[in-house]
Amino acid sequence: MIDFGDLDEIVFLIQKIYGYDFSDYSRASLLRRINRFMENSKVRSVFDLKYELVNNQGTFNKFVNEIVVNVSDFFRDPSFFKSLTTNVFPYLESYPSINIWSAGCSFGEETYSLAILLKEFELLHKSRLYATDISSNAIEKAKKGIYSNKNFKEYSGNYFACGGKESFNEYFISDKNNFIVNSDLKKNILFTRHNLVTDGVFKECQLVLCRNVLIYFNEDLQDKVLNLLYDSLPINGFLALGSKESLRFSSVGDKFMEIDKTERIYKKIR
Amino acid sequence: MIVIGGSAGAFQTLLSILEGMDKKIRIPIVLVLHRLKDQGSLLEKHIQLMTHYKVKEAEDKEFVKEGFLYTAPPGYHLLLEEDRSFSLDSSEMVNYSRPSIDVTFESFSRVLKEKCCGILLSGSNHDGAKGLKKIADNGGKTIVQDPDEAEFAVMPKAAIEIYKKHDVVTSNNIIKRLNYGFS
Known about the structure:
The complex is a heterodimer. Chain A has helices spanning 4-18, 27-40, 46-55, 57-67, 78-87, 89-92, 109-120, 136-144, 152-161, 183-186, 219-231, and strands at 98-103, 127-133, 146-148, 172-174, 178-181, 189-193, 207-210, 238-241, 256-260, 265-268. Chain A is globular. The longest helix of chain A is centred in the first third of the chain and has 15 residues, at 4-18. By secondary structure, chain A is of the alpha/beta class. In chain A, the strands form two sheets. In chain A, strands 6-2-1-7-8-10-9 form a seven-stranded mixed sheet. In chain A, strands 3-5-4 form a three-stranded antiparallel sheet. By secondary structure, chain B is of the alpha/beta class. Chain B has one domain: Rossmann fold. In chain B, the strands form two sheets. In chain B, strands 3-4-2-1-7-8-9 form a seven-stranded parallel sheet, with helices on both faces. In chain B, strands 5-6 form a two-stranded antiparallel sheet. In chain B, strand 7 (117-120), helix 4 (129-137) and strand 8 form a beta-alpha-beta unit. The A-B interface holds A 3-4, 26-29, 31-33, 69, 71, 79, 212, 214-216, 218-219, 222, 242-245, 249 and B 38, 59-61, 73, 75-76, 79-82, 87-92, 103, 106-107, 110-111.
């Protein structure tokens, strides 16, 4: 187990050797993830951790996968997706082509959920979804689109709670253990690696989703990333944050109007 | 800071503890209850009726203030930063729970050390036991609801099992401990 006092040195080491910048991550959260990694990988002391990180690229890769949180579900927060289809889709419809950025897409559950709804609202054919994550491991898994059957029932329930019109089954092929996303759903999605902390604007998009990413950053970095998201949107573009994230303390707060206060959907107005 | 954890059967006990607390006490309280998602702010409204504290859901990067009782939002773990602001975390469930009592106890204890008082109430799983021991290990005060009184004894029993020196008392005595220790 390590404590707050050990964090700076580890963050410095990682930045120096591998170029990842964790210095403005939430320290409480970062500490918890590192200790979780150490417990799972049986790394006992801060000395051993540093040794492993410096000398073993394999350990470092595992470390990063553990540090960046990759937890998501299909149609997580059904009320959010419902609001998106009601309040945002009608605007998207008016564009000849639609660009959407899912920033921090984890294993792709959210992106595929969105693609399903776009398809049901007959928008998918003219949409291009850019789904990015800091973790190359997450991106590889997202591209494959293979998920465990364990949560299928819950996901199916979420789908109907979002106002899904068809049957959740229909978008997947399943075997005994897994279900796999149909290839026609994947056609308009580009999964690629992007680091919100160090990389710039990805592409101008009419809708940007960045949900449950900001909570892992300190306030300075939250503001920096929100500025990046702001720069990625045209006027009248939409921004969707996680249900406990907001623009309240951000320097771009007054450049957005609230579309749905509870579901944290905003529209860029200036 | 007082951090209270509980699950099945904890709610009524919690209300009677809050009601019995000396109105002069203003030390921040943080509450982690296992609860269903999508209940809106019903829980907070209910608790508000029984306490002199101002009740609200903890928000990401919000600073902890005296006179407030904060609830952990459903679907998120609740952590404490060194500057005493909250951080939320939507990662894996711990003990089948998110928020997990263990996660909050451990995180708060790490920052607050002996200035953290942990209370574990009724519940039907083992969440909270490990975290409460951490609070004790870091010099904080730890109180467990008497399993004989708790509606569900599994949670208090689990805590006592891994650490014998918790203060194990009925809810009336929890009130007395708080009123004696913090007013």
